[in-house]
Amino acid sequence: MGNLLEVKDLHVSFGTYAGEVQAVRGVSFEVKHGEAVGIVGESGCGKSVTAKSIMKLLSTPPANYKSGSIIFNGSDMIPKSEKEMQKIRGNEISMIFQDPMTSLNPTSKIGNQIMEAVLQHNKIPRKEAREVARKMLELVGIPQPEKRLDQYPHEFSGGMRQRAMIAMALACRPKLLIADEPTTALDVTIQAQILELMKDLQQKTETSIILITHDLGVVAEMCDRVIVMYAGKVVETGTVEEIFEKPQHPYTKGLLKSVPRLDMDKKEPLAPIIGTPPDLLDPPKGCSFYARCEMAMRICKDYSPELEEVDKGQTAACWLHHPMATMKKASGK
Ligand code: SF4
Ligand code: MG
């Protein structure tokens, strides 16, 4: 399978009164056709900024794409104008958010909103667009879709609104769906239904998915591959099995121990990662995880480790995987 998306050495920063926040610092990853990739990490680690960069949706405050490229379907998104991006957004790449109301207009009927999304990118008669909208509502499991088309978002329950948003996002058959914490606001049962639905639709439509979440359980459920981010960088990548069964980066190990998961032994105590991530106004020059890492060595303070292959396809950015580390480990910090 070829790559649908290739993000290469992306650097994104924001100008603030306090200075320049380096939100994304050299992020690289790929998404293959039909693949579901999870991006995980604590809030502020740059996962949402990375995702929004792909759609060039960072306008407040204005983002500075300092370097790197975002190759989607063979062309770089970074130099594209707003007008060119409008043709891509909602058509080739769609995004769904935690709060459906950020995508749904409360004053317009659900059917009209989906139709508009379709008509914006396709020259078809309104009647046909309405039929597409009806089919989409049916596809996402909304009962009585014909009647529901003429209702407003407030007449839908939270879970139904989420389904309607997914219907709208998928109405133009995008090649890539970016979902930013799509189920966080929903109760557990509805959350499971929505994830099941997304997985099912992904398989049916062969859409690639980027799922951004702090919830590792959701990733285990949905994704083929995982990207772990910390302080604006990718610190580990691997398949879901690799990340859950043999994590290589101390941060990934910490994350796995700090959040409850379905497959965890109930008696296993949760262990939060002590400390806070570094200030991205002035990121450390060495390993970003240094201040919180139990395994830190002297080299970690001054030199930043590169992302390197630690096992076939699994990568990690940590000095422990350097051939010299066995010697250094003994010396401590
Ligand atoms: Fe810890 Fe050093 Fe690895 Fe960073 S490079 S995660 S500080 S061991
Ligand atoms: Mg976020």
Output the keywords.
eight-stranded mixed β-sheet, 12 strands, 32% helix, globular, binds iron/sulfur cluster, binds magnesium ion, ATP binding, ATP hydrolysis activity, nucleotide-binding
SSE string, helices as H and strands as E: EEEHEEHEHHHHEHEHEEHHHEEH
The helix fraction, in percent, is 25-40%
Oligomer: single chain
The helix/strand class is: alpha/beta
Low-confidence stretches: 328-333
Name the average pLDDT. Answer: 90
Bound molecules: iron/sulfur cluster, magnesium ion
Number of helices: 12
What's the N-to-C terminus distance? 43 Å
Main location: membrane
Protein name: ABC transporter ATP-binding protein
GO molecular function, one term: ATP hydrolysis activity
Subcellular location: Cell membrane
What's the structural blueprint in terms of helices and strands?
Blueprint: E1 3-16, E2 19-32, E3 36-40, H1 47-54, E4 63-72, E5 75-76, H2 82-88, E6 93-96, H3 110-121, H4 126-139, H5 145-148, H6 158-170, E7 176-180, H7 188-205, E8 208-213, H8 216-222, E9 225-230, E10 233-239, H9 240-245, H10 250-258, H11 298-302, E11 308-311, E12 314-316, H12 325-329
Parallel strand pairs: 3-8, 3-9, 6-7, 7-8
Antiparallel strand pairs: 1-2, 1-4, 4-5, 9-10, 10-12, 11-12
Bound molecules: iron/sulfur cluster and magnesium ion.
Magnesium ion is lined by residues 43, 48, 180.
Keywords: ATP-binding, Cell membrane, Membrane, Nucleotide-binding, Transport
Organism: Heyndrickxia oleronia
Protein name: ABC transporter ATP-binding protein
